[in-house]
Design a protein that fits this description.
Layout: E1 4-7, H1 23-33, E2 36-39, H2 49-54, E3 58-59, E4 68-70, E5 85-88, H3 100-108, E6 112-115, H4 131-152, H5 171-188, E7 198-202, H6 206-215, E8 220-222, H7 228-234, E9 242-247, H8 249-252, E10 253-255, H9 264-269, E11 274-276, E12 287-290, H10 304-313, E13 321-324, E14 346-350, E15 355-358, E16 365-368, H11 378-389, H12 393-398, H13 412-415, E17 418-421, E18 424-425
Parallel strand pairs: 1-2, 1-4, 2-3, 4-5, 5-6, 7-9, 7-12, 8-9, 12-13, 13-16
Antiparallel strand pairs: 6-17, 10-11, 14-15, 14-16, 17-18
Helix pairs in contact: 4-6
Amino acid sequence: MNPLIGIRREDKNPWERRVPLIPTHVGELIQSHGMEIWLQPSPIRAFPDSDFVREGAKLVEDLSPCPLIFAVKEIPLQFFAAGRMYVFFSHTTKGQPLNMPMLKKMVELRCSLIDYEKIVNDDGQRLLFFGKQAGQAGMIDTLWALGQRWHQLGKRTPFSSVEQAYKYQSLVEAKEAIKKIGWRIHQDGLDPELVPLICGFAGYGHVSQGAQDIFGLLPFEDIPPERVENFYQSQEYASNRLYKVVFKEEQMVVPISADQRFELQDYYDYPQKYKSVFETYLPFLTVLVNCIYWTPAYPRFVTKKYLKHLWEKEVSPRLKVIGDISCDIAGSVECTERATDPGQPVYIYDPLEDRIAEGVKGRGVVVMAVDNLPAEISLESSVAFSQAFKPLVPAIAQADFSGDFAQCGLLKPVKRAVILYKGEFTPDYEYMKEYIK
């Protein structure tokens, strides 16, 4: 019997247009591996339904006959059917409260769950991710927010013409628009009151690389973190270029004990032994782009207490925008109080009143915290993800989910990502039982 796979439409919000497999890859799986692929119709998907049908997929509303179902984002409770295997980004492994009812429902129905985020190789490196696309879209939105904030403060800049990422027809179009802005900065320079425009990137992984890909379309100069303060005070900077600082862990934290040296693996293993020194850089940054992985075990890098100190010290500090691409609520950036969406992508945090307000108007720092940034460039995101996912699909489709987990036959990277197996938490995820009590 041919493996039967269902692809669910995405409906988390109006901007979520991604798909885990693009039409040409669906066609290859059908032709080369004898799969039968059913697809829920969608009026907003990055690829029209007709493209999938042309490749041999079947368009159906009801996917309940499918034993294996792929999606991208979280799935509503009413969609689940007993005993099925679901593959999607569940956002449950940290006990995220919003998704615990979904996880509990899957346990009750004895479903199985593979989470893309946990598909890793032997070195623990993720094989499936939207990190680069999140960084690209997040940087575009951050530049948009900067332009809007400065416009509200009465400063006209080339950034006023930046659109949000989802408003461009493609990433190519967005990049061309950013290049034009870069040329204007190169030719005419920025208002002297706004320079130096120093943009700090917290982190250097896939997300940061995507954000730097967009920033790199502008005229810029690199500054090492240890030189930021002296560079700022030297006034040896130009108005027709921007300045980029990339922060690694060794520049962001120091050991609490004076007789201990920084060691990266030690920091990963015992983050409680370290404290943040990142806030010493904040007075010199115009923009902070947060791309770093964070859990509550790690120190915070931007605290409300420090922001209050900064705003008490100065009427208008240089820090104008925090593009929190990582978007951990009250996490490494404490003033990220909630996630946003492309419809209302930013809010302003007032450190003196400890409150947020929609938009870019008022006292404080603008926070961009869109939690599904890759959806803003859905076409490019889907193509990149599908390219990485397609090679894993045949083995997932042909695995035997009728017996014990140990004998299911999944490839090791995928097996590591099985959170639930027939309603039971697998050994690596038994700690999650506490989340649904």
